[in-house]
Amino acid sequence: MSISELQKSAESRMNKSLDTLKTNLSKIRTGRATAGILDHVSVDYYGSAVPVSQVAAVNVVDARTLSVQPWEKQMAGPIEKAIRESDLGLNPVSMGDSIRVPMPALTEDRRRDLVKVIKNEGEDAKVAVRNLRRDANDGFKKLLKDKDISEDDDRRAQDVIQKLTDRFVAEIDKIVAQKEAEIMTV
Fold it and tell me: Is the separation of the CB atoms in 100 and 72 below 8 Å?
């Protein structure tokens, strides 16, 4: 592998870490209703655990209410049960063929707990980015040891990876701060 290939690989993997962070943070519930909040809730569908979005249409009715419209009428009960038993703290209400999911207001303590979870997610993402930096630097050291690159090339490549790492860590901090502000607004 060449220096540029190692750098491109590290950057694409760092982007994936950033995407994972965004996905994980989108699952953290704020006071507002978003259709993505039910993405990781699984429903028993003929013996298979599938996400709610694959057995029903999830729509935002207003700022505090979701509507879940099952594609098969007999799935309303299992979907309601899955949402109720999820770790989201939601209490769905069956309304004939559809299910309404009101979003309860967050208490101050719950907001603080969610901020801790957000910070932990951010820290995990930073650790992942730093591990990718280490892997890239190990690749450069191996190239140097095999005499495929000079010491100057090794130093320059490590500097590029460090700048890349700093950029992604700053982006992670920015995303975490935005989500924290979103959670703390009443």
Answer: no
Contacts of 98 (CB under 8 A, 6+ apart): 67, 68, 69, 70, 76
Chain CA centroid to CA 72, Å: 29
- The verdict on domain 35-102 having CATH code 3.30.1360.40 is yes
What is the distance between the alpha carbons of residues 66 and 101, in angstroms, rounded to a whole number?
Answer: 5
Start-to-end CA span in the chain (Å): 51
Cβ-contact 157, 144 below 8 angstroms:
no
Nearest to 37 by CA among 48, 21, 23: 23
Structure-block tokens of residue 12: 């694409």
Please list the residue range(s) of the chain that carry CATH number 3.30.1360.40: 35-102
The model's pLDDT over 158-181, given as tens digits with 9 standing for 90+, comes to 999 999 999 999 999 999 999 988
Give 39's DSSP letter: T
Instruction: Select from 127, 181, 164, 183 the least CA-distant residue to 3.
Output: 164
Residue scoring higher pLDDT (133 or 36): 133
DSSP result, 84-121: HHSTT----EEETTEEEEE-PPPPHHHHHHHHHHHHHH
